[in-house]
Amino acid sequence: MDTISGLLLAFLSVMLIDNLVLTKFLGICPFLGVSGRLDMAFGMGLAVTFVMVLSGTLTWAIDNFVLQPYGLDVLRYIIFILVIAGAVQLVEMYVRKFFPSLYESFGIFLPLITTNCAILGLCLFIFLWGVDSLAEAAVRSFGGGMGFTLAICMMAGIRERLDMADVPECLKGAPITLIIAGIMAMAFIGFAGMGA
Amino acid sequence: MADNTKGLALYRNQFSSGLWGENPVLRLLLGMCPVLAVTVAFFPSLTMGYSVIFVLFCSNIVVSLMRNLVKPHIRILMFAITIATFVTIVDLFLKAFQPDMSETLGPYIPLIIVNCIVMCRAEACASKNTLSVAIVDALGVGVGFTVVLVILGGIRELFAEGAVAGVQILPLAEHGGWFEPWAAMRMPVGAFVTLGLMLAGFNLINRKLAK
Predict the structure, then answer these.
(1) ipTM score of the complex?
(2) Domain count of chain B?
């Protein structure tokens, strides 16, 4: 799977066919919470992608070079969550130091990424898929992040227009967002044939 | 005596607020990932529900006991490690005693670690209250979560298979009945739309009650 076309296929399949939000239901909390405005959604998507690539690659390396050779599988979940928390902390410190304006606009989102299930979910899926090279792990993490960004930006675009629409009182907010997500998920089923 | 009844009422309030007024899924919109992902049928939902009750219960106890020992700035990390430990226990338990169910639920059991409900209760309740309040709170929120999961799982199974908990309710067309199974209910679409409608129904009832 280490050829360019193999990597490209892996990227597309994680981004579209196995879209984390719409087929695996991961990262639903920010998907509902931060999808009100397009620019915020895009920022959140980029931050998540960055942390995802970092932690997806790191956890793959730790899993393959440390945990499995020494039979420490029991510690997998604890190590994964520590790596993610550490990666988020690192990104936060780096962004605050070198890009203060970006840090301002991210605000509360950065620390919240630790508990974004899309990240831990992706690390676990990389383990479950049996990814066998560091490059593939990195590419799949990037694809996962891009898929998240795509889904949250599409939702933000729809919700910005939804503000003008006349939604029944009891459907306002989360219910209508979930129903829209359902329709989007239906559209994403169309990609399922691409893998073969 | 009077103190005792007041204490009981306090516990009852704590329990019932987790069940309805502050229901984690319907009101606070927390822990949506497992709600949507595992509710394909009744039994996976139930397993997920009691796994979360166990993790909530144990982590609330530990967090409440160590609340005076932990420095504020590392508390989130300590909570995460506590939760991850109990989730590992649940995961190994299911692998050993319910291998089929463990297969079905897949990565969604380890994902309880980042389930916002568990973290939210540790931060908002267990780290500020005594042991007994933390335990009652864990049970209330856990049961509230499980009830929603099981109802959603039941509805989806009913329309996808014509059965609830494996018991055939609607006669299937292929066996001479009239019910054509809705394949969409088994797919992500069914999860999103059913939960959306459930939330709408919950809002509607709450507004009627408020009047």
Answers:
(1) 0.78
(2) 1
